[in-house]
């Protein structure tokens, strides 16, 4: 889409360099006239696009006019940021845990009461039925956690797991402490394509 022919602009520059005032004025007037014609033509084209309800071509034209280019997704090689994220998310990790390690490698460590409790233990109790209901509500298509246990497994074994997990949760509430194995995390980066809102 060329709005102005380069011929008129070049003729104007040549006349200016040669010092020919009459030819320069004539070239300038011709160029201004062509600019007005191009503006009117483009305005009619935009009106037509709006009247036929074609927003895609309107956005395409606006992108061309403003020279807007969709930025390509790029990753920044920032070593310090990677280290900070790694330290934050993996601060509870042990060397033996891998992202897809079988659950036999996980051991529930006995919880010890804190030396000086900051507040009295809560009276909140989690029932076995509450835990069972939560396990049964797990979505089958969700990804497994860092321990490799899938939501399908939790749903299927909800009756067997409810008792032991209710004990673990209640013990955690009594001690006001979260077991270390619950704080494990696995970060798997998945770069996403950016979508421009205007398209």
Would you write up a description of this structure?
This is Reverse transcriptase. It comes from Hemibagrus guttatus. By secondary structure, the chain is mainly alpha-helical. The longest helix has 31 residues, at 21-51. It has helices at 6-18, 21-51, 55-66, 79-89, 128-136, 151-156, 158-175. The chain has 2 domains: 6-66, no CATH class; 79-183, no CATH class. α5 (128-136) crosses α7.
Can you give me a brief rundown of this structure?
The chain is 50% helix and 0% strand. It is an all-alpha fold and 199 residues long.
Low-pLDDT regions: none
Strand fraction equals under 5%
Helix content: 40-55%
> How many domains in all?
2
- Following the backbone from N to C, one meets helices and strands in this order, namely HHHHHHH
Distance between the termini: 19 Å
Work out the radius of gyration: 34 Å
Organism: Hemibagrus guttatus
Protein name: Reverse transcriptase
């Amino acid at each position: 889409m060329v709005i102005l022919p380069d011929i008129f602009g070049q003729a104007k520059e040549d006349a200016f360099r040669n010092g020919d005032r009459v030819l320069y004025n004539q070239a300038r007037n011709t160029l201004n006239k062509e600019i007005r014609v191009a503006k009117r033509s483009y305005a009619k084209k935009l009106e037509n696009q709006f009247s036929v309800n074609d927003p895609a071509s309107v956005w395409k034209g606006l992108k061309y006019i403003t020279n807007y280019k969709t930025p390509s997704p790029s990753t920044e090689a920032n070593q310090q940021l990677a280290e900070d994220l790694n330290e934050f998310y993996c601060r509870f990790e042990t060397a033996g845990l891998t992202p897809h390690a079988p659950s036999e490698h996980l051991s529930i460590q006995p919880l010890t009461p804190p030396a000086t409790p900051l507040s009295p233990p809560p009276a909140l109790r989690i029932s076995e039925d509450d835990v069972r209901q939560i396990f049964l509500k797990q979505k089958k298509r969700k990804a497994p956690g860092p321990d490799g246990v899938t939501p399908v497994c939790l749903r299927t074994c909800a009756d067997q797991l409810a008792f032991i997990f209710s004990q673990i949760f209640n013990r955690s509430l009594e001690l006001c402490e979260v077991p270390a194995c619950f704080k494990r995390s696995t970060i798997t980066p998945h770069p996403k394509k950016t979508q421009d809102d205007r398209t």
